[in-house]
Amino acid sequence: MVDRLATTCGPLELANPVLAASGTFGYGDSFERFWPLSTLGGFVTKTLFVAPRDGNPAPRIAETGAGMLNSIGLANVGWDAFVREKAPRVNALRGSARLIVNIAGNSPEEFGAIAARVEADRASVGGDAVEVNVSCPNVKEGGTNIGCDPRQFRDAVRRVRAATTLPVFVKLSPNVADVVPFARAAADEGADGVSLINTLYGMQIDTDRRRPVLGTGSGGLSGPAILPVGVHWVFKVRAALPELPILGIGGIATWKDALQYLMAGAQAVQVGSASFVNPDACPEILAGLERWCRARETTIRAVIGTAHRADERAEEPVWTG
Amino acid sequence: MSRGAVWTLPLAGVEDVAAGTYWLRFERPAAVRCDPGHFFMLSAAAQGGGPFLGRPLSIGDVRDGALWFLVRALGRATAWLRTLPVGTPLRLVGPLGRPFDPPSRSVHRMVAGGIGLAPFFYLARRLREAQPGSRIELFYGERSAEAHAPLAAWEPALFDRIERSTDDGSLGVAGTVVDVLADRVAARGSTDDAVAWYGCGPEPMLRALARRLEAAGVEGAQFSLEERMACGFGVCQACIVPNRGGRPRYRLLCVDGPVMDPRQVAW
After folding, report:
1. Could B234 and A253 be called an inter-chain contact, meaning their C-beta atoms sit closer than 8 Å?
2. What is the mean pLDDT of chain A?
3. Could you tell me if A221 and A167 are in contact, meaning their C-beta atoms sit under 8 angstroms apart?
4. I need a labelling partner for B166 at 20 to 30 A (CA). Which of A14, A104, A196, B195 fits?
C-alpha cells in the first residue's frame, strides 16, 4: 500500500501533513473527547514560558469578517506544570503524532532560558522539536515585537539554538514589510525550519462605545481571512530559500486550503482557529487530502511546491466529490 | 461536566415569541443527553456559510424529541440564525460546560434578566420531575413590555409563580428584576434555607443580585454566566471569569461554568 500521506519537514518525519497549531490545541489533551490525538501528524503546544502567565483582561476575542481577533496574552501553565501535569498524559496518547513544544520569553535571554529547560527535561518530556514564538513583546525594551526586530530576532533564535539539540522551527510574524529576510536570518542562526505565518495585527472598534473591543486594544487576526497572506509568504520563502523546511499556517479550514500551502511549498500544515469552530477540522482536512491523493494516485510528497513549476502543464481537474 | 461531541443537524423549526426573541428547534439525536445549564456552540455547518465563530447557547428546553434554544437577536450571529430556512444544516458542539446542580429544596427561585430566561424552562421541567412537591418561582425582568416572552401561554405548568417586571414600568412591576426581588422577597427572609436561588442575565443584573444575596447571607446560589468564547471546551482561553480570591486570577467560563457560585466570582 502506498503511504500517500507521509511527509518530511526537515528533521521531522511525519505520518501525515496535518498538525494542530499552537494556541488552538491546548497542551495536546483538549481534543481527546472528539478524536484520538494519534490521528495527527503532530501538534504544537500552547506557548510555554518558564513561569506561568494569567494572560490579558477580557474581552479577549472579537469576531471579524471571516476570522477573529485574539488577545489572550500567552496565558500558560508554565514549564514545570507542563512537564508534571501535561506531558506524561500527552505522551501516552500521541502515538506517532509529533510533539512540538512552542516556547517564548519576554527578552532574547528568556528565550534562551526556556530552551535550556526544554533541553534539560528532554528525557521526561520527549518532545520532537521546539517552535520559537518570536511574536511576543520584549518587555525589557519597551514592548517592541521581537519577531519584527531583526537584531532581537537573531539574538533570540541564536540563544535557543545554543541551548538545545532538538530541531528548532521559528514561527515568523507577517507584521513586517518582507518575511523572507527573517526566514533567511532564522536559517543563518541554525534553525531547522520555519513556521509561517503567525497572526496579523488588527483592531476592532465598538462604534457604540467608541472604544476598541479587545481589552488590550489590538490583537492578532486569524481565520480564513488570512489564508492568502499565509500562502503568499510560504510561496515567497520557498522561492527564495528552496531548501528551508516550512510548516504552513494561517487560515486553513478545509483540505483545499491545506493543499494550497503544500503546493506553495510547505512540507506540512498547521490548522489553527478552524479547530475552535469545528473541533473535527483536523481529521476532516486529513480525510480530504487522502481522498484527493487517492483520486490522482499521487502522494503528499509529490504535491509539495508544485505551484512553483512554471514548465509543468496544469492537470485536468479530477472530480473527487 | 459534559464531554460534548460534534453534531451536524438540520434546523427543524424557528418560532418567534417576542420582539427579536425566537426558539430554534432541532430533532434530538438519541445520543445527546443534556442537563439544564449545559450549552452548545452553534455555527454554520459549511465553511463560509455564516459568521466564522460559533455562538454559545444554553439549552432552552428538551421536549417532544427536540432540542430547543431560546435566542435573542442581539448581534450578527443571533440575527443570522433567525433568517435561516428550515432544513439548513448547523454544527452543534456539545453539550458543554458545567450544568445546574439543583439541591433538594421546597422552593426553587429563578431570576432572569432579558434573554437570561433561556435556561429556566428546562431547569423547571427537570425540577418538576425530580422534586414534584417543590414550588418553582420565576422572576423575569425586561427593559420594556414588547420584549417580554409570553411564557405563560406555552408552559403554564412549569412555574407556580411568575413575577414580571420592566425597567420602564410598561409591564408588571416597574424596576429591575433585582429591585423587585428586594421589595417582594428579601423582606420576607431571603436567607430562608428552604429556597434554592438561580440567576441568569446581563452582568450588571447578576452583580446586583450577587450582592443582595450575599448581604442576605444566602449560600449556594447558582448563576449561569456568559462571556465571549471561540471554542466552548477550554482551548481558546477567551472566556475568563475573574476569580474571587485571586489564585488563579481567572477561571474559564466554558469548563468551570457556565454555572458558577456567585461568591466565587470577583464581580
Report:
1. no
2. 94
3. no
4. B195
